[in-house]
Amino acid sequence: MIIDSHLHISIITKGDSNFELVKQRLLKEMKINKVARAIVIPDNEPNPQCANLDAVIELTRNEPKLSVIATLKADQINGGNLKKIEKLFLKKQALGFKIFPGHDPVYPTDKRWRPVFKLCQNYDLPLIIHTGINSGNRSAAKYNDPKYIVKVAKNFKNLKIIIAHYFWPELDYCFKITAGFDNIYFDTSALADLEIIQESGGLKKIREILTKTVRRRSNSILFGTDWPIGSFKKHIDLINSLPLSSGEKQNIFFRNAEFAFRLKK
Ligand SMILES: [Zn+2]
């Protein structure tokens, strides 16, 4: 079985004229690639190209294969919105929360996030953190440097934190600084994309870092693609190419996601 822990309902080709069509294409591609379930991450602002939280909730309402991650901007955190997020967690309409440091000029250690992190911790749902450089804007990575993420991991010991994109292109640095944190996880989203492979030292480097990460803690990597930008097939091939046992690969493909997002409870 395969669970995709990180994708979006976003319009990247002219053929996808609305989110409903993107969703249909998503379900079709999931079927072709034998992806049983997917976690859809909304954009944290109204964006005609990428569905936001309300749109994703609406689009996935009757789609048992699609689950949702909640998100807000730091300046939207207030009593009312926290209640809304808690309600989503309670009804299992959202299975975690994502922050976008680097898209937003806000650090993961910003005090405003604390009530959200507490909420995730109380409901045992993960916090996903966007990391790495943005194409055309390398300085954005200063906001999502894992040195801040480990501070959050220290302050919220029972919070499951998923680092998205492995702080590319600085994979080794991200690997080293997260050593010893049993509440830090990584998703593989975008790691099979050509730009990220080229910028991060090549496919051999990506394979090496993922293998080392599994050896360090076998439950720490979750399969993710960043579809529609990332390809299902390329990411599946990447995991299958790792020198790991089939049990270890199954952990990546679905068991770690089942645990992190509490899919079986
Ligand atoms: Zn993404």
TrEMBL record:
Pfam families linked: Amidohydro_2
UniProt entry tagged with the keyword Lyase: yes
Coiled coil ranges: none
Keywords, comma-separated and alphabetical: Lyase
Gene3D superfamilies, per the entry: Metal-dependent hydrolases
Source superkingdom: Bacteria
InterPro entries hit by this protein: ACMSD (IPR032465), Amidohydro-rel (IPR006680), Metal_Hydrolase (IPR032466)
Molecular functions (GO terms): carboxy-lyase activity; hydrolase activity
Residues of the Amidohydrolase-related domain: 79-263
Tagged with keyword ATP-binding: no
PANTHER family xref list: 2-AMINO-3-CARBOXYLMUCONATE-6-SEMIALDEHYDE DECARBOXYLASE (PTHR21240), CATALYTIC_ HYDROLASE (PTHR21240:SF19)
Name of the featured protein: Amidohydrolase-related domain-containing protein
Organism encoding this protein: Candidatus Buchananbacteria bacterium RIFCSPLOWO2_01_FULL_45_31
